[in-house]
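Researcher: Quick test of sequence recovery. Tokens follow.
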């Protein structure tokens, strides 16, 4: 069974912060790291996103204008030295150039090497960015097939799992965070379809399968022990890191079953108490961890448990959904949401094929 740091790779508005709160209760054995790579993606000298490109003041005021991929991995390494297993939840596209642009390795980690016979990550100083204008594209080499700006040898240090949610739910939820009145809280003043995140989840997932870092075995139900999809090969050649994909709707319908199956897949001892966090210390830690992305995590911050929703979602027609979006966001907003949803459904449905069933 793998004991690598767990990396939950997801997209925005996938109920991932509620999922993360479950594992934040296991402070005895886990050290949770909340969305670290957004610092470099949005604000730092290696930033990939255009969102703050013309807002130097905003980048500086964020407190992360000096964050590089190197400084983030060094933080993760420090956290990993505390004797607990790391549990990292992050947005997959933070590691991937937007809009399908070809990837090359981030300058600060281009010289990554793994020290022989130890668990120490060596990150010597890489070349400095000196070109005018946006940092990306970098003047560095690419790794064949690698869609991320992180060397495959560094990706290999993590136990990757994946969390998805249907675009019909996630996209309008994200759109809401980028328009009045919530945009004044989030600081995201426009909706960018490139931040939907499904394409990046799929490409990173397929790359990790291609290089043998995850799979071929697919995670099984905690109760049956049977592979739920795909090959039932042992997976021993990659340390037992099986394919593990969670769908948020399955999680919300059956949190106990899904969390049990997930724990079994990644090698965490399950306890029913993981699903409850209604105490002062849990709330304090969550508020501190989620505070930097204001407006995005309020529901998770004020929550006290993860329990099954009272009623399973009743599917709505495209016409019903469009009417709801138009009522909330206007005709133009509804049009943008529908176009973004439609563009991302194929990638969601592809990932859904691998999702744990209980």
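Model:
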């Amino acid at each position: 069974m793998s004991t690598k740091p767990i990396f939950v790779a997801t997209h925005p508005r996938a109920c991932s912060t509620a999922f993360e709160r479950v594992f934040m209760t296991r402070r005895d054995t886990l050290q949770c790291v909340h969305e670290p790579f957004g610092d470099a993606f949005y604000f730092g000298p290696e930033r990939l996103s255009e969102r703050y490109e013309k807002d130097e003041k905003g980048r500086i005021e964020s407190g992360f204008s000096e964050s590089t991929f190197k400084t983030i991995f060094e933080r993760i390494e420090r956290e990993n030295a505390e004797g607990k297993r790391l549990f990292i939840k992050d947005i997959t596209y933070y590691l991937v150039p937007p809009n399908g642009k070809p990837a090359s390795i981030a300058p600060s980690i281009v010289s990554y090497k793994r020290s022989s016979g130890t668990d120490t990550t060596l990150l010597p100083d890489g070349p400095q960015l000196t070109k005018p204008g946006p940092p990306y594209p970098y003047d560095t080499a690419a790794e064949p097939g690698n869609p991320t700006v992180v060397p495959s040898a560094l990706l290999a240090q993590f136990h990757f799992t994946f969390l998805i949610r249907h675009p019909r739910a996630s996209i309008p939820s994200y759109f809401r965070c980028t328009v009045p009145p919530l945009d004044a809280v989030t600081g995201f003043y426009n909706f960018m379809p490139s931040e939907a995140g499904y394409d990046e989840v799929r490409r990173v997932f397929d790359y990790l399968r291609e290089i043998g870092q995850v799979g071929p075995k697919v995670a099984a139900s905690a109760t049956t022990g049977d592979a739920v999809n795909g090959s039932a090969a042992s997976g021993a050649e990659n340390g037992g890191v099986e394919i593990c994909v969670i769908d948020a709707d399955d999680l919300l319908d059956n949190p106990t079953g899904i969390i049990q199956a997930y724990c079994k897949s990644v090698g965490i001892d399950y306890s029913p108490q993981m699903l409850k966090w209604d105490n002062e210390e849990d709330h304090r830690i969550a508020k501190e961890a989620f505070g930097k992305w204001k407006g995005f995590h309020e529901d998770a911050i004020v929550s006290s448990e993860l329990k099954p929703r009272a009623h399973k979602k009743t599917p709505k027609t495209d016409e019903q959904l469009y009417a709801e979006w138009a009522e909330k966001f206007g005709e133009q907003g509804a049009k943008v949401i529908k176009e973004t949803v439609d563009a991302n459904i194929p990638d969601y449905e592809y990932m859904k094929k691998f999702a744990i069933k209980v």
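Strands lie at 6-10, 30-34, 85-91, 113-114, 121-122, 159-164, 245-247.
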